[in-house]
Design goal:
The complex is a heterodimer of chains A (401) and B (435). Chain A has 401 residues and is α+β, with helices and mostly antiparallel strands. Chain A has twelve helices and eight strands. Chain A is 47% helix and 14% strand. In chain A, 53% of the residues are buried. Chain B has three domains: 115 residues, Butyryl-Coa Dehydrogenase, subunit A, domain 1, CATH 1.10.540.10; 94 residues, Butyryl-CoA Dehydrogenase, subunit A, domain 2 (Beta Barrel), CATH 2.40.110.10; 127 residues, Butyryl-CoA Dehydrogenase, subunit A, domain 3 (Up-down Bundle), CATH 1.20.140. Classes of the chains: A alpha+beta (401), B alpha+beta (435).
């Protein structure tokens, strides 16, 4: 047993840290105020990231490489791309969560393609920036209730429906759209399709104005008789009612630890800043039992303990994915813990910093707004609790609703 | 708030009422009443002296065991084959013996000699003593000690403490003891009948800090004279060998004290939980100890000594919380209310999900600190964070375990009330253990 981050990830972590400090932080406030402005500075950064990725895929910091365990064999145990991506995302979100989400070619759609596309599709979609469209006005957490339809017509599918909350939905090259082949057949009939922007029938409805992560555009997209080539369907076109939802849900096993990592990175920024602001009030020597510390010291120690637990839970879930261990439970545990801890810490740090934390001179108030989404998307806190409880109790989704 | 006239009147009335009852029933003799009122101060017996420790041929330098090497610089939660074998046997012992005996041991305030003998058959003490001193250990794995503690506590936390206390003394002697101390004391742990031994750090006062001891050790010629009070000392009534923490002139130190030493007495002050560990208070009244019995030479690290105990308590809490989780799931799946299992309700199911989440969080922080300790890295910060998280979450899990069973959870028909009491120990205990 060894609970350390291996040295081989140090360059990746350092690169991401440098980007966070030198590129993202100085732009944070600009694009928080200028919501929907295109952060053109990210293009150059993305090119640099692509360079990192090409050079060393296992050590890349983007979502595009999740889910593919490394080939190298290191005596049975692997510390591969899932772990690397999580570590990179932590540092990037320590810089700015909105920018990480807005990073070209690193969208959740890319993660979905990486997880389920076949070899031909991987080649065809290579280098494309893919957004992910699941949510609809009438369906959020219950993604099985998707109303968007895909009807087979010759060698095309015809998509109809309305998608909301599509991260980078406007800026991406294409969108991975979840739609049902037959809404009567429930989850098993839900498939995902890669739809290129420019396909007739695909139309931007609006961009949301949001509480946080304003640097990242969140689009609503309408599909009206939108014809998508059949070869753009990801995974199997068959409706396998036995396998049910598993195909599309597999993505979550890789993306939930990644979102946990984002929450951890965002909270790290707040925790580090509050410690700087409170340096005259803290001993910070870990020598006394927590109950013997001052109230403020005890509170910081408790937050740090929760934060560090969340950190290692995310690394654990990613480590399991790297080692091809079934990690649905651990992925949800990591996201639940990081989501609640990240949101709590960022908010509490605003409060502890007083009016300084509440005003825009500091970024504390921004991080406290950004962190809320990380306890919501890729499955809310409550959805994670459902997943965990069902697993622990051995209950079906019919029994534990 | 100070007691006022009404308060004194009520107290007097209370005394009158109870003596009235006693008189009517004629149950209490005056002697017993004396024992009853003087429980704390009056019940003092001499510590046990059943063995003569003697040094035969101390080596020139102490035996120090290395941790199993980590040749690969990779994050890895896997355990070795040897660790898995140990876990398997400890887990079945915990399920088949400790869990079965838990209720009885809690009531008897004692881990039975049969259970201790069976625990000894697992050979744990043998693996705590280096080969050259008659044991079987070629390396010293803090991680293995942690896993053993977790797995024993999954059976029963109180008995686990009783089993682990002597092991803690052996571990501390292996890690810190001088050649003489190892020859005289550590070697006896590999004998057929190893000594009962324990570690005394805690002292009876609010906001106790193990770094600020009130028990004092005054150097007097070639011995130390120790004075003070210790509390929550496992096996204190039966132990033949004690490691006692006391403030020396040059900082906190630990002394090896044999049971039966003059002025070294054990009292009685039963606690809320972990009662099977037979923990009692100790009084040291001018106890004279040879200077050579001060633990370690220059390399003794009192902070690490305390932290390795604290991490032991964290490991026990993880095991006990796992048993809570293992228990409440099936219970809530079977318990019917309003026509369906209560686990089908989110308010119940989410409490169980939270137990699973925080239990895993407790594990990661504890494992992390222990891995660092095993590898000889600094681990004070990690141990502090682990304790800070573990005590809060473990106590919450103990509370929720009872809540999930409702009124049934409040009765001794079910084990959750015991876990509720046992798990408070992690918030107050220092010492007693050493991984």
């Amino acid at each position: 047993m060894n609970i350390e981050i291996p040295k081989k990830f140090k360059p990746l972590i350092n690169n991401a840290y440098q980007v966070a400090q030198s590129t993202l932080r100085p732009l944070s406030r600009k694009y928080d105020r200028g919501e929907h402005d295109y952060p053109k500075e990210l293009d150059m950064l993305a090119a640099v990231l692509d360079g990192f990725n090409e050079g060393d895929p296992a050590n890349s910091a983007g979502a595009a490489t999740t889910g593919k365990g490394t080939r190298e064999d290191e005596g049975g145990v692997k510390n591969g791309s899932n772990m690397g991506v999580c570590l990179g995302a932590m540092e990037m979100c320590y810089g700015d969560t909105g920018f990480l989400l807005a990073m070209p070619r690193q969208g959740l759609g890319n993660a979905a393609i990486a997880a389920v596309a076949n070899e031909e599709q991987l080649e065809r979609f290579k280098g494309k920036w893919a957004a992910m469209a699941i949510t609809e006005p009438g369906c959020g957490s219950d993604s099985a209730a998707i109303r968007a339809t895909a009807k087979k017509d010759g060698d095309h599918y015809i998509l109809n429906g309305e998608k909301i909350f599509v991260t980078s939905g406007q800026r991406a090259d294409c969108v991975v759209v979840w739609a049902s082949l037959d809404p009567k057949l429930g989850r098993a009939a839900i498939k995902s399709f890669v739809v290129d922007w420019g396909t007739p029938g695909m139309e931007l409805a609006r961009l949301e104005k949001k509480l946080g992560i304003r640097a990242s555009d969140t689009a609503a997209i309408n599909f009206v008789d939108c014809r998508v080539p059949a070869e753009n369907l990801l995974g199997s076109p068959e409706i396998d009612t036995k396998k049910g939802f598993a195909g599309v849900m597999e993505t979550f096993d890789n993306t939930r630890p990644l979102v946990a990592a984002m929450a951890i990175g965002c909270a790290k920024a707040s925790l580090e800043r509050i410690k700087e602001l409170l340096k005259d009030h803290m001993q910070y020597d870990f020598s006394k039992p927590v109950d013997n510390c001052s109230a403020i010291e005890a509170e910081i120690y408790k937050m740090e303990a929760d934060w560090e637990a969340a950190y290692w839970l995310a690394v654990k879930a990613a480590w399991m994915a790297d080692n091809k261990k079934a990690n649905t439970l651990e992925a949800s545990i990591s996201k639940a813990k990081a989501g609640r801890v990240g949101n709590y810490i960022t908010l509490r740090c605003v409060e502890l910093a007083g009016s300084l934390g509440y005003t825009e001179d500091e970024l504390l108030e921004k991080w406290a707004r950004d962190s809320k989404i990380l306890d919501i998307f890729e499955g809310t806190q409550q959805i994670q609790q459902l997943v965990i409880a069902r697993r622990v109790l051995g209950l079906s989704s019919k029994e534990l609703k | 708030m100070a007691k006022d006239a009404v308060g004194y009147a009520l107290t007097a009335l209370n005394r009158l009422a109870s003596s009235d009852v006693l008189d009517k029933l004629g149950m209490r003799k005056s002697v017993e009443r004396l024992a009853y009122t003087l429980t704390k101060g009056g019940f003092q017996v001499i510590t046990t002296t059943a063995r003569t420790f003697k040094s035969s041929k101390p080596g020139s330098k102490p035996e120090r065991l290395n941790a199993p090497g980590h040749t690969k610089d990779l994050f890895d939660l896997g355990v070795t084959e040897e660790q898995q074998m140990i876990r398997d046997s400890v887990q079945s012992f915990a399920t088949e013996v400790l869990r079965e005996q838990a209720e009885h041991a809690d009531a008897a305030q004692k881990t039975s000699d049969e259970v201790l003998a069976q625990a000894q058959e697992l050979g744990l003490n043998f693996f705590a003593v280096p080969e050259s001193l008659g044991g079987a250990a070629t390396e010293r794995s803090t991680v293995t000690s942690m896993l053993v503690a977790e797995d024993l506590a999954r059976g029963d936390m109180g008995q686990a403490v009783a089993i682990l206390a002597p092991m803690g003394v052996a571990n501390a002697l292996t890690q810190w003891g001088t050649a003489l101390q190892q020859d005289k004391y550590l070697s006896t742990f590999a004998e057929e009948n190893p000594p009962k031994a324990t570690i005394a750090v805690c002292e009876p006062r609010p906001l106790f800090d193990p770094m600020a001891l009130q028990t004092t050790a005054r150097k007097d010629g070639d011995s130390y004279v120790i004075n003070g009070e210790k509390s929550l000392v496992p096996l204190a009534g039966d132990a033949e060998l004690f490691l006692v923490a006391a403030q020396a002139e040059d900082g906190p130190a630990v002394f090896i004290i044999e049971g039966g030493s003059e002025g070294f007495t054990v009292g009685e002050d039963p606690s809320m939980g972990i009662r099977a560990s037979a923990q009692r208070p100790l009084t040291l009244d001018n106890v004279r100890v040879p200077a050579e019995n001060r633990l370690g030479n220059g390399d003794f690290d009192y902070r690490a000594f305390v932290d390795l105990g604290t991490l032991g308590w964290c490991a026990l809490a993880i095991g006990a919380c796992q048993s809570v989780l293992d228990y409440v799931g099936p219970y809530c799946n079977e318990r019917i209310a309003f026509g369906e299992p209560i686990s089908h309700r989110q308010s119940v199911a989410f409490m169980i999900a939270d137990i699973a989440i925080e239990l895993d969080a407790m594990r990661m922080l504890t494992y992390r600190a222990v891995c660092r300790a095993e590898q000889g890295k600094s681990f004070q910060r990690e141990a502090h964070l682990a304790r800070t998280l573990v005590k809060d979450k473990a106590m919450k899990i103990g509370t929720d375990g009872v809540q999930l069973l409702g009124g049934h959870g409040f009765t001794k028909e079910y084990p959750v009330e015991r876990w509720y009491r046992d798990l408070r120990a992690v918030g107050v205990a220092f010492g007693g253990l050493h991984l």
